Amino acid sequence: MPFRNSLIWKLLLPLPVILAICLGVAWYLIPTAVMQNAQDAAKRSAVQTAKQFKTIRGYYTKNIIEKAKANGSLKPSINHKGKPNAIPLPATLIHDISQLLAKEQTTLSLYSPFPFPNRKDRKLDDFQKQAWAFFGKNPDKVFSRQEMHGGKSILRVAIADKMAAQGCVNCHNSHPLTPAIGN
Fold it and tell me: Would you say the pTM of this structure is higher than 0.85?
């Protein structure tokens, strides 16, 4: 009986319980922390990619579209493919590049509820509708959501796209269907 009353016995008895509790907590917390870290990294990467595309679009507008329009030999067009004197509009360029990147499991979409004639058949999905509503109140924030597509978990990320290149602003604000004209 002296062994049962010893300090070693009193320490050894709760040790498996404490160890089981620690393992249970680790079993729960570590995967959750790893998943959250991965989602945060994916979100940062998506935002960085969107910003890079915005930079490319601004460069293209300023250094290609404006020169083409001034020269008159090339015309920016949504339907540029197969037309010898047509080049893509800036958003069309981004759309075309995104189609190429889709092969690498990366997609980038520019979407808007504004009914330009070339968008008449496009319908916003629930994520896009929620993003638009969110940006109405939080234009400088990031909207994201985890979804299942084709049995895979994906992270969808949206950021508000504010036109910075003056050529984009001029073109969109001069278009008769642009909201800026009617308001």
Answer: no
